[in-house]
UniProtKB/TrEMBL annotation:
Record's protein name: G-protein coupled receptors family 1 profile domain-containing protein
GO molecular function: G protein-coupled receptor activity
InterPro entries hit by this protein: GPCR-Ligand_Int (IPR052954), GPCR_Rhodpsn (IPR000276), GPCR_Rhodpsn_7TM (IPR017452)
Coiled-coil intervals, chain numbering: none
The G-protein coupled receptors family 1 profile domain, residue ranges: 1-255
Subcellular location: Membrane
Organism of origin: Batillaria attramentaria
Residue stretches spanning the membrane: 7-25, 45-70, 91-111, 144-167, 199-224, 236-257
Record key words, sorted: G-protein coupled receptor, Membrane, Receptor, Transducer, Transmembrane, Transmembrane helix
Transmembrane helix is among the record's keywords: yes
Gene Ontology cellular component annotations, sorted alphabetically: membrane
Record-stated family: Belongs to the G-protein coupled receptor 1 family.
């Protein structure tokens, strides 16, 4: 889609793919092969690339969702400003600002882990250890106030309030127009309204539930209040991390199944690919035939 919304959705798709890939490299690999934590090479990768980049993709995914929502909000509620702000140039600028801001705010994660070179003469045991910063109060304050509050809760409330405003605006606009339309036109408008409302509600509430649960579980995991079972909190936090991955995995499904426009775009792409396949096969056959004839004649 050549539009500001399409740009944000492309950026969101890239971030979601990054979340899935880096979650596998930083979390799933350690579950499938626990001995990998003894590898110095993996410790270097995890400390200086895997762990910080994974969180960068997570935060970018969350804020690109905010970008999509803000873009829709301007198109629906601020129609007079849509031509100025809802274009590809502005979208590229917004994506660049989100990416740059998320990278700068995510910098402390690059100092969270380090390599343990003092593991004894035989070099056995975990090569990956937490830094003094990660063990201290500074990391806890950063994770709670910056990561949980600013990077998660602020976009959480932003997406909720903006989508609520969009739905309210659509309902009011259609109620005003119903009296001026025929029954057939009003029914068509109502179906379109229901589709948009359904898309917004499904995407928003899946985002709110999964990200909200992750934020709450992470706060309990870091603070570990008195009277709570540590094992239960650890299990809840593990499930909450999986919720972030699920949120990144289902965005494509939610948009394509809940929105007609996205389904049409997908079908259009698939039809183009289907039309190209016979042509590519025919071209390949002609090329093979030509090569065979050339070899036979010796030219």
């Amino acid at each position: 889609m050549k539009s500001s919304t399409g740009r944000y959705l492309t950026a969101l798709a890239v971030a979601d793919c990054g979340v899935l890939l880096w979650f596998f490299l930083t979390d799933s690999v350690k579950m499938f092969a626990p001995e990998v934590v003894n590898s110095v090479a993996y410790a270097v990768f995890f400390s200086y690339l895997g762990y910080p980049v994974f969180f960068l993709f997570v935060v970018c995914s969350i804020w690109f969702m905010v970008g999509v929502t803000v873009d829709r909000f301007i198109m629906v509620c601020l129609i007079t400003k849509a031509k100025v702000y809802c274009n590809e140039k502005r979208a590229n600028l917004g994506i660049f600002l989100i990416l740059g801001s998320c990278f700068l705010i995510n910098l402390p994660h690059f100092w969270s882990f380090t390599i343990d070179f003092d593991r004894g003469e035989n070099g056995t045991g975990p090569a990956l250890v937490k830094t003094a910063y990660q063990e201290g109060e500074g990391a806890m304050r950063y994770e709670f106030w910056v990561h949980c509050i600013f990077l998660v809760l602020v976009p959480w409330f932003s997406v909720f309030s903006l989508n609520f405003t969009i739905i309210t605006k659509i309902n009011k606009t259609n109620n005003k127009m119903n009296s001026k339309k025929t029954a057939q036109s009003a029914d068509k408008c109502r179906r379109s309204e229901n589709q948009i409302t359904r898309l917004l509600m499904v995407v928003t509430f899946s985002f709110l539930i999964l990200i909200g649960f992750q934020c709450i579980a992470q706060c309990f995991f870091m603070l570990l209040p008195d009277g709570f079972d540590k094992e239960i909190i650890d299990e809840a936090y593990a499930i909450a991390k999986l919720g972030v991955v699920i949120n990144s995995s289902i965005n494509f499904i939610l948009y394509c199944l809940s929105g007609r426009r996205f389904r049409n775009e997908l079908l259009s792409v698939l039809r183009c690919r289907a039309r190209d396949l016979p042509y590519m096969s025919h071209s390949s056959g002609d090329h093979s035939s030509g090569t065979s004839n050339t070899g036979t004649t010796g030219i």
